[in-house]
Description:
Distance between the termini: 52 Å
Number of helices: 8
CATH architecture of the domain at 28-117 and 191-272: 3-Layer(aba) Sandwich
Structural class: alpha/beta
Number of strands: 10
Radius of gyration: 19 Å
Largest sheet: 6 strands, mixed
CATH topology of the domain at 28-117 and 191-272: Rossmann fold
Order of helices and strands: EEEHEEHEHHHEHEEEHH
Helix content: 25-40%
CATH class of the domain at 28-117 and 191-272: Alpha Beta
Strand order of the largest sheet: 6-7-8-3-9-10
Bound molecules: adenosine-5'-diphosphate, magnesium ion
Strand content: 15-25%
Amino acid sequence: MCVTLSLHYGVGADWEQGEGCFALEPVLEVTDLVKRFERKGRADVVAVDGVSFCVDAGECVGLVGGSGSGKSTIAQMVTRLVEPTSGKVVLCGRDVTHVRGAELRAITKDVQMVFQNPVSSFDPRRTLGEGVAESLRNLGMDKPAARARACELLEQCGLSASMADRYPREVSGGQCQRAAIARALAPDALLVVCDEATSALDVTVQAQIVRLLERIQRERGLAMLFICHDLALVQGFCNRVLVMSEGRIVEEGAASEVLARPHHPYTRRLLKS
Ligand SMILES: Nc1ncnc2c1ncn2[C@@H]1O[C@H](COP(=O)(O)OP(=O)(O)O)[C@@H](O)[C@H]1O
Ligand SMILES: [Mg+2]
């Protein structure tokens, strides 16, 4: 029997040692993750209370829950913007929970975020093209090549290359979010985390951005964690959905299954709202 362990994702898993992510391990594995925020003179907030899940290669996982349920805190721990209180974050088999320095910088390339507010996620003094090209420049690409690649990515995200010369405030919210998606794709990340990436947009634009993310996720076989508060939005897009309430995952399953037959009362309430 031949077991092919050498199947490499080829998505730029550029760890210093040149190791990559192998097909048999999840891209992201989160185990017993806890975040306790300490507040002076007031009770601590346990924003995330023992959460475990994984995202496989090519899989889009929806993380859904009401406001304050701990979704963004999870996103920030996965991207190491916030230090976990306890638990483990493993990226392609490598424990990255407490890495620092160069290793931490490598993670910021390997895990890309798309935020709720696209305009404020860009530097207002730099053009969208410069914003998209930044990670490529940091990876050592020369300026003309990075610019050409940025234009290509903007076009793949449905924008004309001329948008590269616009400043974030000179484009619509939807256009700016397309540029933010192009920026997330630039460094060939292992995982893209979208935190309420469509929530600030009006409904028609929201649908367009979901379709764009869906197309890109499928075409590139990207591992994606798609966070939103709207359970209906993940239908048809995410393979699996995790439902969060008060820092815990209260239900999980195939998106169609959870939507059709929600078990937890919280999920039912979320569907009705
Ligand atoms: N830096 C912080 N300090 C104190 N509490 C925080 C901090 N960040 C988030 N929280 C609290 O943690 C909980 C979860 O927040 P968050 O992860 O932003 O939820 P969501 O993204 O699901 O709306 C909320 O009660 C929030 O007020
Ligand atoms: Mg949030």
